[in-house]
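Because discrete structure vocabularies remain unfamiliar, we first show an illustrative case, written as a sequence plus integers encoding its fold.
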Amino acid sequence: MNRTTLSLLAGTAALAAVTGFAALNPPAAAPAHTAEVAAQLPVERTTLLCPAPSLSDIADTSYTSFTPVTKGTASDGKAELQAATEQSGDGTSGKKKKASKPVLTPKAPGTPATGDVSGSDGPAYVGTAEGRYAPGWTVQETTEVAAGTGRGLQGVNCTSADTDFWFPGASTASGRTDYVHLTNPDDSAAVVDIELYGKDGQLKSSVGEGLTVAPHASEPVLLSTLSDEKQTDLTVHVNVRSGRVGASVQALDDKTGGDWLAASADPSGSLVLPGIPKDATDVRLIAFTDGDSDADLKVRLASPDGLITPAGNETLHVKAGMTTAADLGDVTRGEAGSLVLTPTDQSVPVVAALRVTRGKSGKQETAYIPATAPVGTRATSADNSGKGTTLSLTAPTGTAQVKVTASAGSGGGTAVSKTFTIKSGTTQDVDAPVPSGLKGTYALTVEPVSGGPVYGARTLAATEEGVPGFTIQTLPDDRGTVAVPEADQDVSVLQK
């Protein structure tokens, strides 16, 4: 037997189990039964990166940490959320700085933990979870800004580090202040390129090339400093030359509030953008394709009654290398909805996002919905309230059954579950369960039981002084488990 092949397989399996960022697939030459004997095991270590929350002195930010209960986990472990700068050396001795009091102390799986930061002093955080705390660990960052640029409710899920990100929906137009936040969790510097694409192609700039993000540090990069061109709709591409970073875009508007724009799902010929609020007064679709071929997309809305085509927006033509936008207006017309994009003919990889507005002139608020991956095995949403949470689920290609579990509350309460049937081609704002005896905030986990793929989003709303503040987070798989071949599997076929 080929010893090198076996060593490589064993090493890859161990890496997958430790990081949770890799899944093993059998090589093309392997028989079908190879994949069937792969086991789904809980990940053993997870890293999450939270961007610095706000530049406003009147901002209040809350953090919620939650790990769902996962079978087969270790009996011990730990989790911590630490300011990024406290992990770096002092520049001379190389020793870590003395850590301040943590923003929160994670609780045992099944119970959320919360913490708060006020004003503009909130740092970026690097979080690590090990053992029983790692599988599906989720940290939500939610900020309320009372007034000024970006006022309203802003929310973002802390993300894993990666090397490639696409953000359709950013802007350098007058009245917009958009930042790309880059956070480096590692011991060596990361080198990053930021490219901007507008309606006529890539914006000329050398300022965004070769940006250095120091070890255990976070850098907010103002998009308007990268180019003098004013563009209403931009696609931002973050490409990491060396190292890895976490990346999110903070999109702030002088008049219509603002929110975090999470990265779009990987470029694909078909995309789903779930969870458009019922009362959305304006929805704007922004799309981009990188490469030499244009993309022609069929635009459909998955409504509570099935897939429908928005009048006047039946298709979207996306020119290669150029950002394209379409104003869909109040496309949901008072009902739950999700946007489904599919190729009209040739499939060309596309990224996309929605800019969603609620409220009327003078009292408007905006949020973003990027194209997202399906729920997969399980998705997790932290920081939910009994009255302000809306859970939206869509099954674009086939009827699905979904189990939704509300955790215990951060201050008390008992977990409860419900099962829902989502009909093919529809979107439902489900009557999500709320923990009995709820005190504090709670988490929701979504687990498909049967049927086709399910996509989801959580809207958190908090109206203040007539302004309908809200933020939307999509619900891709929480990557709590990883596929690992059985230890006694015959892998002799791999050497053929």
In short: The chain has two helices and 37 strands. Confidence is low (pLDDT under 50) at residues 1-35, 87-96, 489-496. Helices lie at 3-19, 33-36.
